[in-house]
Design a protein that fits this description.
Number of helices: 3
Radius of gyration: 13 Å
Distance between the termini: 23 Å
Oligomer: single chain
Order of helices and strands: HHH
Length: 82
């Protein structure tokens, strides 16, 4: 899962959505990941409404997603080893 920043508006969200679509997750986990993505979409829309430029929004979305991704992968590994 890598999220590359795109120059276009919401490029980060599009890349994150593609990355998440490639994952094979159990339904409960998939629902949680989808909900997190929806929160990123809402955050992006709110920041845009506040007049934040797209490139800045993308950077914030990528930063938040990368933190989430690290925790998600850490928890998946912990569950596998339990």
């Amino acid at each position: 899962m890598t999220a590359n920043i795109e120059a276009a508006s919401c490029g980060a969200l599009a890349q994150i959505k593609e990355d998440l679509a490639r994952l094979e997750l159990q339904p409960d986990l998939s629902d949680s990941v989808s909900q997190h993505y929806e929160h990123l979409e809402a955050l992006s829309a709110t920041l845009k409404t506040l007049g934040i430029v797209d490139r800045t929004i993308d950077q914030h979305v990528v930063d938040i997603f990368n933190t989430y991704k690290i925790e998600l992968l850490r928890n998946i590994e912990r569950l596998r080893n339990a």
